[in-house]
Hints:
mainly alpha, 0% strand, globular, 7 helices, 138 residues
Amino acid sequence: xxxxxxxxxxxxxxxxxxxxxxxxxxxxxxxxxxxxxxxxxxxxxxxxxxxxxxxxxxxxxxxxxxxxxxxxxxxxxxxxxxxxxxxxxxxxxxxxxxxxxxxxxxxxxxxxxxxxxxxxxxxxxxxxxxxxxxxxxx
Length: 138
């Protein structure tokens, strides 16, 4: 992170600032992003999204992003990660309760298969420029 900061801003990022960001500031940001993601996904699923596969695909991408940012492989963060994981599970459960055609079991099956046909969501409900972004990125 320090190298990326120096490259982008031309200044050194002190160890204390980097540690503070990773251990104190980043966590509430991730929690806020999670709340906004699930709220927006629920609204989109209710009004625009056409397939269950699209929804599961987006959930899978978001879960991967969360795992990347929270460093679940660091033992010194186990206590925080356990609290976050419990909160995240409750958030996801509340989300699935709102959807009549998608369940946690559907998502678990989706994650377990890792089948290319499942991962390639259509996203036909998106505007053409956004579809192009997804096609290029994923």
